[in-house]
Amino acid sequence: MTVSDLAGSDETILVAQARQSDATAFSELVRRYENKIFRLALHITQNREDAEDVLQEAFLKAYEHLDQFQGNSKFYTWIVRIAVNQALMKLRRRKTDKSVSMDEQFDTGEDTLVREIAAWDEDPEQQFSREELGRILESAVQSLEPPYRSVFVLRDIDDLSTEETAQALDLSIPAVKSRLLRARLQLREKLTRHFKRKGDDAFAYL
Amino acid sequence: MLTCKDFLRELSDYLDENLAGEARTELEQHIAACPNCWVIADTTKKTIRVYKGMDPYPIPPDVEARLMQALERKMAAKQSK
Ligand SMILES: [Zn+2]
How many residue pairs bridge chain A and chain B with CB atoms within 8 Å of each other? Predict the structure, then answer.
């Protein structure tokens, strides 16, 4: 079977074929998810070298332990979980002085996350070039603490469901929900600096 | 009466359309009456939207090439076992 035949194949079939030591089938699975896994690894480690290591380790581990993959979750959720674990291990090793934890350090009310309340234009992103917009969005995500960043990337960028995100990060559903809300509110706050409607500041003094 | 704090706590579920019936109506009534929460809901909704539309970050070709090489080595080792 050629690669182009496999490109449209059902994931369960690919996994079954890969389990029978079909190298082409596993390579197709890798091609399907390598971009997302690399982006996720970059977001967690914030370091290109580490992200590349995580990417390789995740897929090599997956290949090695393919027989342990239970068909009751998506292959993508499974590989995400492996990649997240590898990435967290890297983070811990890198910052031996500072403890890196996926747990929340403090628990303040959501209302403390809202400081600036200013309306945005209808399509604020249109005022920026793609490159500029990309930089603004990336740097805002990078400024989030790791527990919030991972949840946000999986839920709102990679479009995983709440249940899949909980599975991938080994968190409870309420924990995913509360971290997602906090991440969204913090990003909203950061983006307001760039996206707020011009002139609204002046009106505030009238 | 729903407070702004209550509203904020439900914001994600509201924006993800996980709420129905009375819970949703209550939030909608709050937004209609509270300009601050309207702005927060609107700007949070736009925040989610701009990230969803973000270009996928393509994997650099050299990174992909090294990944494929590592996999081939691994597969070859497994076959020879
Ligand atoms: Zn309010």
Answer: 113
